[in-house]
Inverse folding.
């Protein structure tokens, strides 16, 4: 049967039942729009985070320990990388800089008459601050009684902190240390990428004299500073070779190996490894949430099936007429499948822009850059049509099987 | 096709049983030939089996036993799809209740059999429009059935029955839903179409309608009781 004619018959039928058809379409619109919204939002978040990490951390290798069972997070922060390890890592070919990072516990940080309790202070080398991250001021020198704060920290006080102002840090033993703010930064070189989405207020201090975590180095037998995490800046052209050399050192003769529990794995991850892991996590979350939205689509499909069954019953006599004038079963089936597919298609065509609009709103609200998920959009339209066809199959099959003699007697 | 070339319909020893709790015999060993260009009326009280006979000849139903051949095609042995094609091209139905598609215009209704026969849209419309003119509805082509009178609707149905130029026109109580004057006009139209060479089989329970035909087949309790020749054709 001529498809144009079945579309014409269908359009007349839809027009004759405007409200019913519109409500059915709304069901599909909601389903498609939810899928598009979540998929688009997920893709936007992923693109934003991955973009951040890729631009700023391409040549970084992050070294830390992960316990076999992930249940004890504290153990990942054990200070096991000694000064000896750092010297050894610096000598690996391709390594351009080694940036150890430690945590200094404080009771509080005070500025003027305002006190912030329980601030984590990060101990870093001056090399962690490049021109790129400095917003104002300068980096501290080694063994200088000075600090650098990030913008969040600067904004945490009622009067914004600026360079030259004084901070008082209360140490766990109750002692106080007065320091001068010499710079404000918007991040540090070698920061582990996952910390980028939890931009906490931070105070950075020079390792010397603030960082006091020491252990006895098994290799050289003297007490040395040791760090829970080290970042290596490496030649971007030699990432795979350098990464495996670092990994070999860590798993072999390193102090960190000797100092770590046997079930702790010492890993050297590149920025790309993080990108992959994070993308993977976000994709899984997106797929899960989108999967929930698919339920809405299934409900839409049930709506189509329901309306089609009603339509078949109402149009039994028409089916009889069509059969009496030469319609084969598949012609009758076609008329009803076209109607169901058309409802699904209209739903998709309206649902996609609506979903994009809501997705765009969500990205604006979450302050991430809007990215399209073209694959999902194509998929959603395809699924919408398919939903219509599948939902219409049974009603259409029922229509095709109608006995023409009974149908012609039907009132 | 052993029968003579001008036999349009051959019904040979046809029986039809329905299983409605018990077995009901609607037709019992009925044989009937319709020659090309003939005009036959089937008369009988309701439940006599006359509608069943019409449905079997028209390919809407299949006999329990016996053979129905329409224009050389064995309807009784045809598959469902083949019967659909026979309904579309070999026979044209005219019903008591018109049975027009309510949301299609007159011209679209007349063109509907041509859709299933695979004609393209332009040719369909041309053919349908000229048929509507020939039944006197040239000015009503774009009206839907609800905008037409009973007589006009039945004329649309007649134009539709003619659209594929079928070998046989089957009319089931065609005047049953219209007033006497309109009924007479419809029967006049049948006469004209018969004169133009069309073969008619008309089912009715009204004597004056049946008398328009060349012969009357009386059906009762699933049997043909008698075949009456109408002298002079018209009353």
């Amino acid at each position: 049967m001529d498809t144009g004619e079945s579309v014409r018959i269908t359009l007349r039928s839809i027009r004759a039942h405007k409200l019913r058809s519109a409500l059915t379409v709304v069901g599909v619109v909601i389903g498609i729009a939810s899928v598009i919204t979540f998929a688009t939002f997920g893709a936007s978040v992923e693109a934003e985070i991955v973009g951040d990490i890729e631009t700023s951390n391409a040549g970084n290798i992050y070294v830390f320990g992960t316990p076999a069972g992930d249940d004890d997070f504290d153990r990942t922060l054990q200070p096991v990388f000694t000064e000896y390890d750092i010297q050894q890592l610096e000598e690996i070919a391709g390594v351009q800089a080694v940036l150890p990072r430690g945590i200094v516990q404080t009771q509080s940080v005070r500025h003027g008459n305002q006190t912030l309790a329980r601030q984590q202070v990060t101990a870093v080398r001056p090399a962690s601050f490049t021109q790129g991250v400095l917003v104002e001021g300068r980096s501290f020198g080694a063994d200088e009684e000075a600090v650098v704060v990030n913008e969040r920290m600067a904004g945490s006080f009622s009067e914004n902190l600026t360079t030259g102002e004084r901070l008082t840090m209360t140490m766990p033993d109750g002692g106080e240390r007065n320091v001068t703010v010499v710079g404000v930064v918007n991040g540090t070189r070698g920061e582990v990428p996952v910390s980028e989405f939890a931009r906490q207020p931070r105070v950075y201090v020079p390792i010397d004299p603030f960082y006091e975590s020491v252990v006895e180095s098994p290799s050289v037998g003297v007490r040395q500073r040791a760090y829970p995490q080290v970042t290596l800046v490496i030649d971007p052209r030699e990432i795979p070779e350098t990464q495996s050399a670092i990994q070999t050192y860590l798993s072999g003769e390193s102090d960190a190996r000797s100092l770590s529990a046997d079930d702790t794995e010492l890993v050297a991850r590149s920025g790309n490894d993080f990108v992959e892991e994070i993308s993977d996590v976000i994709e899984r979350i997106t797929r899960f949430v989108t999967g929930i939205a698919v339920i809405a689509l299934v409900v839409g499909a049930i709506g189509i099936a329901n309306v089609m069954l009603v339509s078949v019953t109402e149009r039994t006599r028409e089916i009889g007429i069509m059969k009496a004038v030469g319609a084969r079963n598949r012609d009758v089936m076609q008329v009803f499948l076209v109607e169901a597919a058309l409802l699904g298609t209209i739903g998709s065509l309206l649902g996609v822009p609506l979903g994009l609009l809501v997705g765009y709103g969500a990205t604006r609200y979450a302050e991430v850059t809007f990215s399209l998920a073209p694959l999902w959009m194509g998929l959603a339209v395809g699924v919408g049509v398919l939903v219509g066809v599948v939902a219409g199959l049974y009603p259409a099959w029922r229509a095709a099987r109608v006995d023409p003699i009974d149908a012609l007697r039907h009132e | 096709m052993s029968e003579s070339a001008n036999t349009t319909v051959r019904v040979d020893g046809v029986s039809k049983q329905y299983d409605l709790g018990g077995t009901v015999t609607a037709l019992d060993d009925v044989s009937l030939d319709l020659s090309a260009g003939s005009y036959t009326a089937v008369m009988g009280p309701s439940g006599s089996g006359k509608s069943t006979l019409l449905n079997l000849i028209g390919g809407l139903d299949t006999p329990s036993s016996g053979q129905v051949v329409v224009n050389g095609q064995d309807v009784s042995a045809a598959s469902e799809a083949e019967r659909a094609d026979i309904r579309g091209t070999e026979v044209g139905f005219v019903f008591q209740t018109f049975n027009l598609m309510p949301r299609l215009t007159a011209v679209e209704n007349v063109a509907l059999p041509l859709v299933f026969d695979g004609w393209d849209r332009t040719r369909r419309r041309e053919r349908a429009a000229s048929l509507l003119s020939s039944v006197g509805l040239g000015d009503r082509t774009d009206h839907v059935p609800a905008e037409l009178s009973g007589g006009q609707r039945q004329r649309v149905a007649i134009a539709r029955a003619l659209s594929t130029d079928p070998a046989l026109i089957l009319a089931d109580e065609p005047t049953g839903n219209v007033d006497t004057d309109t009924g007479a006009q419809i029967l006049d139209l049948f006469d004209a179409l018969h004169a133009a060479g069309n073969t008619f089989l008309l089912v009715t329970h009204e004597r004056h309608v049946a008398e328009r035909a060349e012969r009357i087949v009386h059906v009762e309790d699933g049997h043909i009781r008698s075949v009456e020749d109408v002298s002079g054709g018209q009353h």
